[in-house]
Write a structure and sequence with these properties.
single chain, mainly alpha, 5 helices, globular
């Protein structure tokens, strides 16, 4: 599972660095938060793979089992607020995912 988490994080970072800035523009004066958007998106994708689709369960999963990997995980309310703001950008990932990942044979 650790390798999967790393793979997802690297994928997310690659998309952030190669996509248009307008896809992931931060609409805040806090351009460099302690807990990054890349970490947040990684957690979302990882939870989807784990079959965890509810935001509260997603936050609990990371807090309980993966906290050392995300030491600056914000509280639940802040987490959900930021996740909701980032959700429109998930379309960019959805559009790029089929091109970068091949289905198993």
């Amino acid at each position: 599972m650790e390798n999967l988490l790393i793979e997802i994080y690297l994928f997310v970072c690659q998309i952030y660095h190669t996509s248009s800035a307008s896809c992931f523009q931060r609409l805040s004066n806090n351009r460099q938060p302690e807990f990054t958007d890349q970490e947040l998106v990684t957690i979302w994708f990882f939870a989807q793979v784990e079959g965890c689709f509810e935001k509260k369960r997603l936050h609990r999963l990371i807090e309980k089992y993966w906290r050392e990997w995300f030491p600056r995980l914000p509280g639940y309310q802040t987490f959900v607020l930021r996740l909701n703001r980032l959700e429109p950008g998930f379309q960019t990932f959805g559009a790029l995912l089929p091109r970068t990942r091949r289905a198993p044979k």
